[in-house]
Amino acid sequence: MTVPKLLNVRDFQAAAAQILDPVHADYFAGGARDEITLAENETAFDRISLLPRVLRGRPAPDLTVDLVGSPTSMPIFLSPTAFHRLAHPEGEAATARAAAAAGTVMIAAMASTVAVEEVAAQGTALWFQLYLQPDLAFTESVIQRAAAAGCRALVLTVDSAVFGSHERDNRHDFHQLPDGLHCENMRDAGEVRPIQMSPEFSWKHLRWLQSVTDLPVILKGILHPDDAILAVEHGAAAVIVSNHGGRQLDTTPASIRALPAVVRAVGGRIPVLLDGGIRRGTDVVKALALGATAVGVGRPVVWGLAVDGGKGVSAVLEILRAELEHTLLLCGYGSVRELVAGLLLLPPGEY
Ligand SMILES: Cc1cc2nc3c(=O)[nH]c(=O)nc-3n(C[C@H](O)[C@H](O)[C@H](O)COP(=O)(O)O)c2cc1C
Fold first, then answer.
1. What range does the record give for the signal peptide (predicted)?
2. Which residues are catalytic?
């Protein structure tokens, strides 16, 4: 058998699809309902053109950013995705090793199949993604675990009043983890609690969260500019413009399309991050030129993990880093921090 050369993120996607159990491949790939947002997240980037500058006499590009207090080697972080042990036996521990090697932030998912303490032990800058649970005392105990493990920020996912409807999973009847895999952060006195969603959470619960932790709280899943303003007013340390990779409410705009209005509403008061559909270095440049401080990758990390564990995740991250640097050089920019919207030709009527 000839081993195909894996040159880009799409190659990893195709290779992962060959390796993963088809049911799990659909779990990772799928989106909500008709998967319109899922597709839009990627195609919206393709409709934006780059208008490069020439003869600018710039040095080799500087990719470093300060990511809400965590210095990173590039403006690309690992968005939280659940159940990494479905992709590789070492699961989130292997992912964390790759994040550490890349010098960037990993956001550990509450629904991790490796405990946060073991993920943190791999030495990466770690943030903890949280779904508020109706049992606030239990929620507080999870936060304390994450803080004690060394997580530097909490990422509160706010786009999930209920679970999204994934018809691929429903067709496969995929509703629980295989034997031996558990959400290790949901253990409570030996029992593993199910993760619950609730529509009853409100801004007052953000206040509660801030009262029980000193960690910065970042809100993930902001699309509406009015919510971005409320996030600033309620002391969020940053917002992540995200539609959950098209897995919650279908037919929301691509996250890149929601970005400019959020950036305007926030007005530089806190960093604005983005995830959804990042597959190329050019996508990263487009998001940064529209005002994002950094971008997250979800599925590409899982594809790398499925293909070759931590080494596969490293390969995906290094491909994106090299593409980002190459794009900056071709665009005439010497730093990711100097990107401006003038670099872009936006599709008429869309932005
Ligand atoms: C398989 C899978 C599981 C995910 N699990 C979570 C989760 O537990 N918590 C969360 O906030 N977001 C979760 N997300 C959303 C990601 O954090 C991120 O928003 C999304 O994957 C970004 O889009 P991309 O996959 O196109 O990069 C998940 C996404 C995928 C694909």
1. none
2. 244
